[in-house]
Amino acid sequence: MRISHHCLSALVMGAAGFALPATGQEDPSRDALIVETILRIEGFDLSGSTKAQGAVKRYLKDNWGGERYLDLIERFDLKEEAPGLLRLALKKSESPAGAEAATLLVSLGKGALLAETLEKEDEVAAGQAAKAIAHTGDTTLMAALPKVLANPDRPVSVRSSALAALYGKDPESQSKLLAMVKSNELAEDLRQTASEILMLSRNPEIREEAKTIFSVAGGDYPSIAELLKRKGDPSRGKELFVTKTCMICHEAGGTGINFGPGLSQIGDKLDGRALYQAILQPSEKISMGFEGWEVTLKNKTKLVGIIEETEENLTLTMIGGAKQTIDKGEITSKAKMKQSLMYPGLHQLMTPDELADLVAYLSSLRKDG
Ligand code: HEC
To answer: What is the domain extent for residue 324?
Structure first.
């Protein structure tokens, strides 16, 4: 809530004016107070106060990406901070703060910075720019992504990010991707990313079809008793953990996103049989605290993820790790899902021998090495 100009102007005069030390010494806590104050005053004219300008400038420099960083830039339309915003949008391209930074950059009219970064040789930055562009959903920027995809001279990591940016979110676009995969229009080195996007689609029909396309197992899968007889190779299993989508939802040995339970010591918790069960029938036993919830909002949006609640808010962590905090007043219903958030059928992306490798790797993950 904003406080009226009247009751706070006196405070600001105090903070920005008389109360500043006469020596002009910098004082971060005073800068923060000024920032908090001017943000609350409706229609505060920043250009009219050099002291407030100084405080804002220092605050932005000392608090890059911090709590009020985006608020300040947005409120006072600080276009000169665009390079800092760009850095934030790239560095945090996997998180809501980065998404906000990217969106703000576009609304300041500086979206071209993202387009330039996408074209740069710096592979990491270009990949992050693709993700940031997807967050903005800006049609002009999005239009640059197919060009990246179609250019075989760009590194596979950049093209993969562009692919995920184009098709990662929206199930409708995913049916187009599915069609491209089926008609072999997609470059071979992008199949891995395409399989991840489609296997993780919110649309169950797309998921099902993707499973049959990318399935390498074929026919009947051996029973757990059969699988337990195979001796897997943990070092190959470690690679499979990355390539067979596990790392999208789990962290193990320093790789991956903590969406589902961390698996860095899973070998101490589950034996071979339980590990096979966790992968083959994820919905049989759902780990406490990792149950999935379906939340419906007043505006009819349906969200799926793991929830945490406070009195007023509900925080939903979605697949991929992005968090969204929702005012409870916005929620019309919420229901616990019977199925695990871990998709069934992931084993079909692997031959039985590969699955045995993966389980051997997971078994090897123990506290004492
Ligand atoms: C879409 C997200 C997602 C993907 C992809 C995923 N998992 Fe999971 N996984 C979960 C969630 C959520 C849970 C916790 C709920 C449950 O027990 O079913 C879980 C649970 C597990 C457990 C049991 C952990 C425990 O502490 O009991 C194991 C083991 C596991 N997953 C292994 C894997 C492996 C191996 C892969 C890759 C083939 C994988 N997961 C892919 C989300 C995922």
So the answer is: 293-336
Q: What is the pLDDT of residues 79-100, one digit of tens each?
A: 999 999 999 999 998 877 898 9
Q: Which of ligand 1's atoms lies nearest the C-alpha of 266? A: 26
Q: Is residue 17 part of a domain?
A: yes
Separation CA 14–CA 19 (nearest Å): 5
State the distance from the centre of ligand 1 to the C-alpha of 252, rounded, in angstroms.
11
Residues 359 and 279: beta-carbon distance below 8 Å? yes
User: In this structure, are 96 and 126 located in the same domain?
Assistant: yes
CB 114 within 8 A of CB 141: yes
Instruction: Give me 43's structure tokens.
Output: 């229609």
Distance 270 CA to ligand 1 centre (A): 12
Structure-token match 């698996």, residue found: 263
Chain segment 223-255, per-residue pLDDT in tens: 999 999 999 999 999 999 988 889 889 999 888
Tell the residue nearest (CA) to atom 36 of ligand 1: 246
Tokens of 215: 């399935």
Spatial contact of 313 and 331, defined as CB atoms under 8 Å apart: no
- pTM over 0.85? The answer is no
